[in-house]
């Protein structure tokens, strides 16, 4: 939202996706052909449309559009929040407008604003009241006679001192004062706090006797207070105007033209006379389209022409207004360049179009059927809605009759797989877009599929199924759409219990795994029957039900897979039956070993034994560290002469050597079969902490004093041992740390588990 700030965007995807509909408004000449279009008529002359298109490079672009026809009970207004200074989120501005008595049915962000203050960069007129100067920016105006754009208008303000016969002129109104910017005028609409000027300056306070600030008009004022250049800000107050300039501007003489009690006439005159008749005016960015063609692209702000999220407003020849929001900077939507945006607006039939604030500011909210409050329909690139300077709000003066007038399906726009079924809900709104109870006799009819008992069943052919709704008793009617597809483009398999992706599993005999399978098309979920998902098991590892519940059985160590076939796609879940280590059944380290085995960090000494109390070999310890670190790719060989290049631990030892973990046993040897002492194991693990993702501070050696044999820890192992003690990784045995004792495979398992999982 910062004026003239580079916005960067990321993108979206097309490969060979079915074009479901040509698009009601034919969006896409600039961003690519529409692959998905869904529209809803929310009120007479007020239509919402959501499109998904794909660039030639296959990047997804998602757009959101409103068409507001002349004669609709819904019309636009401009609000710059409660004061010019500060900004609001889209939800806050809607709540504010409602508190002012407006019935708001939607909103989009408007003008660019300054980051630190959220002051609009351009012009603001609210219901005829002039609240912010244009400052060389373009404008778009709304009135009962229609909307129009204005190229770089200026509003000249003259203060004529009728008493002294002196006058001053200025253009800066409710903008941040700069030291060299000349004269500035502030009204109560700027800030409830003060002028928010930060350097010393000159001030004249005027009391408003008659009139209101407008683009072209007159006011009668009286000088109420004069303040010299020793004040840096001034509370404005109701029915007051403040004239000021920074001390550094050397404009003291302009303030000497006024004395307390003088009568002053304030006159405003706009360089674009048409703006005088406009009730609502917003500043805007570049004019994109004029008289049906691209408007001087060489004049566009070069810092924002690249691919970005976008907001634009267009005007058609018949007076219909188009409000266009495009997501960007995500994998779900690329965004567009200004040139592409201009072409999109032309393709929609706009003869005039302007660029509004984009990037993370691009936001659209609508009062949708079934909702009591506005819903943000797009996905702002910040991940949340941003506080911005000003908004276009869609309001209606219609009085609610409480009766259903427009009918909708709650599942409008959803994807459904051929042959699958989905329950449909009917929704209703009154003449003000307020949700009311749907008539009991609402009837739904489909074209491609069938509807029985409120359940829709898709046919065998893909396409857009237009659902008609009607009520004989009330005369209410409406339409909805379901998008029938023959195949999805993504299949997701998750563990139903954990919600995590399920690509492989190590299970004990009798253990179950419940799978949740969903299909996506164009990054949206697809309705599909459970019977559309087919499961099969390969290998002697167990069986799976039609509902996706797998039960492990078979020989310990056996490997196989579950295959899933759904929506034209296939997926696999690898399955391995856990070894049943006979020597771990009642061992204190049983859970630690089980955790590491299932994580692929440790194996047994045989198919049925782990040998928990056997000493830990140096090569196996390093191998376990390597596995715990994720088995990073490392092609070089170790320098140790006793590590064969084809040894099962060779790559792990080479990785450990390269990372300073293993420094050998001397004389160029690693001694792979040697048994680790406890302090050697402590040192190896200590040197691996950062590679295992552990954040730590080195432990003070005094921590070893708690152990009866702490003084026996070798000098080279004292810091490693103290650090592991401080992290809770080692606790000692019966008050001793046993530094020269043998590190067992069970002790290793506990150390690793505490390190990796803090358990």
How does this model look, in words?
The chain has 759 residues and is mainly β. The chain folds into five domains: 34-145 and 281-396, no CATH class; 155-270, no CATH class; 406-485, Immunoglobulin-like (Sandwich), CATH 2.60.40.1080; 490-577, Immunoglobulin-like (Sandwich), CATH 2.60.40.1080; 583-757, no CATH class. Helices cover 12% and strands 33% of the residues. It contains nine helices and 45 strands. The strands form eight sheets. Strands 28, 32, 35, 36, 37, 39, 40, 42 and 43 form a nine-stranded mixed sheet that branches. An eight-stranded antiparallel sheet has the order 1-2-3-22-21-23-19-20, with helices on one face. An eight-stranded mixed sheet has the order 11-10-17-15-14-16-13-12. Helix 4 packs across helix 9, helix 5 (618-628) packs parallel to helix 7 and helix 7 crosses helix 8 (715-726). The longest helix is centred in the last third of the chain and has 13 residues, at 745-757. The two termini are 46 Å apart. 47% of the residues are buried. Mean pLDDT is 92; it is low at 1-26.
